[in-house]
Amino acid sequence: MLTRRGAGAALLACCAGVPTARAQGFPDQPIRLIVPFAAGGPADTVARLIGRVMAQRLGQPVVVESRSGAGGVVGVEAVVRSRPDGHTIVLASTGAMVALPHMMPRMPYDPLRDLAPISLVIRVPHLLAVGPKIPARTLPELLALARKQPGQLTFGSAGNGSTPHLAGELFRQRAGLDLVHVPYRGAAPAVTDLLAGQVDMILADLPVLLPHVRGGAVKALAIAAPERSATLPEVPTMAEAGLSGVESDTWYGLLAPAGTAPDRIGVLQQSMIAALNDAETRRALLEQGGNPVGGTPDEFAAFLRQETTKWGEVIRAAHIRME
Question: How far apart are the first and last CA of the chain?
Answer without folding.
Answer: 33
